Structure formats: C-alpha cells, structure tokens
Prior knowledge:
- By secondary structure, this protein is mostly beta strands.
- Helices cover 6% and strands 44% of the residues.
- It has one helix at residues 80-86; strands at 2-4, 10-13, 28-32, 40-41, 44-51, 54-60, 64-65, 75-77, 93-101, 107-114.
- It has a four-stranded mixed β-sheet with strand order 1-8-9-10, covered by helices on one side.
- A hairpin with a 2-residue loop joins strand 5 and strand 6.
- The longest helix has 7 residues, at 80-86.
- The chain is globular, with a radius of gyration of 17 Å.
- The chain starts with a strand and ends with a strand.
Amino acid sequence: MILNLTPRVVRIYQADRPNGVDDIDLGLRQTIDPASQAATLTPLPLVATVQDDVPLELIEYGHADNLPAARDGVFLIVPRDVALALHPRRADLIVTHDDVTTVDGTVIGCRALAQPI
Length: 117
C-alpha cells in the first residue's frame, strides 16, 4: 500500500510521457490523493552564531511532524526533504521521481516513485 503524505495529488505518468505538454491527462497512469495532513520537517535549532555579520544557526533536520510509525507493507510518499532527513532510519519513505512538466516547466507529476538510499 502507498499513502501520500504530501500536500498535493501525486500524478504518475507512463514512462514515455513527454515533457512540454499541457494536457495533464496524456499518459496518466494513476493519481494518489493526499492524506489529511502532510509530513513536514521541524528544524531543531542547536547553536546560533554570526558569520560575516549574518546570523548563522546550526540546526538539526531529523524530526518530522505528521509522520505515522512504519508499518510492514506500507510506503509513504513524503516531500524529498523529509525522506532525506530521515534516511536511513526510515526505509518506508518514498519520493516522486522523474518529473513530468508542462510547456512552461511547471511540474504536474512524475513517471515513477523512488526510495532514497
């Protein structure tokens, strides 16, 4: 089972779906609706300093909100920053991969899902 913990519908297209086409239905294989709440990162400030008269904070990105516990056989589509921050602790997190874009470069979906390693 795949659950979508991003704030938008995930559209998955055929591998041969070209970029630069505004028709969002062309080559559409599947859509995965978002859950009621999206997974997000909560940065944890550790140390604040100043570098070249600019505030510089050392922060840790390893704490996610709205992320359920891992369950066997369940993969969670999450924003890329969430998956990368929690890797390798969470093998159930996946991201969109191989973006599909319109004429103006707007991302409307992907051709695959990926598991960061």
